[in-house]
Write a structure and sequence with these properties.
The protein is an alpha/beta fold. The protein has a domain at 12-62 and 84-151 and 173-195: 3-Layer(aba) Sandwich (Rossmann fold), CATH 3.40.50. The chain is built from three helices and ten strands, in the order E-H-E-E-E-E-E-E-H-E-E-E-H. Strands 1-2-7-8 form a four-stranded parallel beta sheet, sandwiched between helices. The protein is globular and about 50 Å long. The chain binds 2-acetamido-2-deoxy-beta-D-glucopyranose (3 copies). One 2-acetamido-2-deoxy-beta-D-glucopyranose binds at residues 2, 9-10, 32-33. One 2-acetamido-2-deoxy-beta-D-glucopyranose binds next to loops. InterPro entries: AB_hydrolase_fold (IPR029058), BAAT_C (IPR014940). Residues 1-197 form the BAAT/Acyl-CoA thioester hydrolase C-terminal domain. This is Acyl-coenzyme A thioesterase 4-like. It holds the Pfam family BAAT_C.
Length: 207
């Protein structure tokens, strides 16, 4: 990306959602020239498999399928299956985000049914501060589920989860979630324009 003729450099911004957010947080922690990162409902830890970078491996937190709940409609609720982060921010499964060069914006829905995003964000924030970093920017949206997409995408309340090959609920109330999607997009654009030296102010999404 840094060599792409349309990329101004010297750094790039990363935006990821869910597992993609954890990949972005890992890239920001280990790779150079990442100037700003946005994590939308990332877990901040290594979840179902080990993250490898050169000699470093971050072990998975692990999960317990016995904690899956089945809702009355037969759809799974997996919000409690991940193991607790027992040693809090020093847990070895947490991505070492304090190594990131640039700032991180955490966006989380308080009705996320994939995992406890708000708790994960809290742990990430404590870890950054314990390592002498500034408190990161955190935006929590009430009534918002896991699947925070760009504005005006229809709210996805449930869909097939690849890990289980079954339908799981993602959470979110229609109105609150839709409003969060519109607001989150504005916040992301302004964060990137602030930290990637954007020239145009108040960029409006063409959606
Ligand atoms: C990475 O950042 C450094 C410091 O800003 C810069 O000198 C270098 O050119 C950048 N690398 C690339 C590939 O853009
Ligand atoms: C990953 O998920 C599968 C369930 O699909 C589970 O059987 C396995 O134990 C999980 N592995 C870890 C390390 O959590
Ligand atoms: C996912 O993000 C939404 C808002 O973006 C937040 O309300 C929700 O709590 C998050 N989920 C988790 C598990 O953090």
């Amino acid at each position: 990306m840094l060599q792409h003729p349309q990329v101004k450099g010297p750094g790039v911004g990363l935006l990821g959602f869910s597992l993609g957010a954890d990949i972005c947080l890992s890239m920001a922690s280990f790779l150079k020239n990442i100037s700003a990162t946005v994590s939308i409902n990332g877990s901040g830890s290594s979840g179902n498999s080990t993250i490898h970078y050169k000699q470093i491996s971050i072990p998975p937190l692990g999960l317990d399928l016995k904690r899956i709940k089945v809702t009355f409609s037969g759809i799974l609720d997996i919000v409690d299956i991940r193991n607790d982060i027992v040693e809090k921010f020093e847990n070895p499964s947490i991505i070492p985000i304090e190594k990131a060069q640039g700032p991180i914006l955490f966006i989380a829905g308080q009705d996320d049914h994939n995992w406890r995003s708000d708790l994960n964000v809290q742990t990430a924030s404590e870890r950054l501060q314990a390592h002498g970093k500034e408190k990161p920017r955190i935006i929590l949206y009430p009534g918002t589920g896991h699947y925070i997409e760009p504005p005006y995408f229809s709210v996805c309340p449930a869909s097939v989860h690849k890990l289980f090959n079954k339908v799981v609920i993602w959470g979110g109330e229609l109105r609150a979630h839709s409003k969060a999607q519109v607001d989150a997009w504005k916040q992301i654009l302004s964060f990137f324009s602030q930290h990637l030296g954007g020239t145009h102010k108040g960029v409006s999404p063409k959606l």
